[in-house]
User: Fold these one by one.
Assistant:
Number 1:
Amino acid sequence: MYTVEFQKRGLPHIHCLVWLAARNADFDPIIVDGFISAEIPDVLTDPIGYALVDEFMIHGPCEDDNKSCPCMKKGSCSKHFPKSFQDETMLDKFGFTVYKRRNDGRYVVKNGLKLDNKNVVPYNMKLLKKYQAHINVEWCNKSNMIKYVFKYVTKGSDRTKVYFETTDKASDKTNPA
């Protein structure tokens, strides 16, 4: 399911939900980490990934380093950056995903400041390399899916186009509706 909106600068912006076929519906950090990263890649082993994360997936600087950043509302970042370091991906007490953001010493430089994993917007490396654009990817579980659908997929213009597609025909036969 998706919707396309046009931001103030006239650029298209998409909000999309993708359902993954899974044998087990329980949260599994290993599966999440296989799709989503919130860390800066190693420049020596993945120089292209490092350059793309540097260019498209770093938030800020904001907060005390740039109080005039557009994300700043009432003296703090409205996107809740910088995040905290996190050794492993987990769910918080409200059911929201907290991504792995290790304190591994990696950083990029923006406006003369070193920004580390605390400033990385979650992404999928395959999508980032294919489209070379800012693509924020989030794990959406049962509790926050409804909020996402109503907040993002239906916001914007007076029209919404919704498209559902089953991509694995074999799963239809094994899971009759």
Number 2:
Amino acid sequence: MLIIGLTGGIGSGKSVASDKFKSLGVAVVDADVASRTVVEPGKPALKEIEDHFGSGIITAEGKLDRNNLREIIATDPEERKWLESVTHPKIGEQITKEISESTSVYTLFVAPLLLETNSQEMCSRVVVVDVPKDVQIRRTAKRDKVSPNQVEQMVAAQMEREKRLEKADDVLLNSGTIEDLEKQVEELHKKYIQMVE
């Protein structure tokens, strides 16, 4: 099965690109979605998290209080490690399950930390959605309603743009319009279909 890994820095346009692949009939497996799925009410991971952190970590609706959890793990590296030891294997299982259930011509695996976590090893090709840093900062600040300074810190915490591009098999340059990006996706889609045929 052809698995295409899609990644890119914050504000690069991964969602726009993956939505376009989806509209072309490609199954999309998203690491962020998988990470939310494994902590849904009734899932074992949520029970483990509640047992560990206490009932204050659960909202009145019985869901995980992500903001509360984020605050805890931001200031306590040991708690972050514990949380990752519980959730990461389950997220991995969820991703593997979704990929194995895919029936489309090829499968797109979207992961912001694809290269940082060496998840590209399970992919046939890596697509990087690339954007100049100034555009990335401007878009993210506007989208998330945060200061450009905050965005710069987020960008600095991620893999450097040059390193990401070095590891790419294909690049979607997203410095123009959404339509420009979607046209590039269509071209890559044709290429991947030919690879499978």
Number 3:
Amino acid sequence: MNSEKIIQINIKPDTPGEHGLPKMSVSSAEIHYGGVDGDYNTYRQEKKKGEPDMAVMLITQGILDDLNTEGWPVNNGDLGENLTIQGLDYDCIEPEQTYRAGTALIQISFKCEPCTYLYSLPYIGDEKGPEFIKTVKDRRGWYARVLEEGVVKEGDCFQLENSL
């Protein structure tokens, strides 16, 4: 039985004067080829021209737990992830893997790199920013493209469909 599941869905609408972090929790969302409904990623839209390989960002609860253990009070949604997954080993995620997320089908694209937007988190700021950026390198999450649009709800299974 699959134990990987979506434990939180996060979005942040385009709000003038506000950074895109942290994202807020919603109980369900539609996932479209262009991203999660209600979520706006300034970097993806403005710098990457809506790059479809960056439509959805996910992270594992294990990474967030590790960061908390290391002294960083990171909450779900703080790193910009749309989906927080429980029960999935972060180190097992690889590019081109395909996952069923609710009724959507997504394919892992590449790791999300840390950026200075993380400085906007209240417990980071300019002073701790460089240290935090180093801490989350290779642990900020993964981007995915959408192969089939669908709906995700908290508690939905997150199931590996295909690993290339």
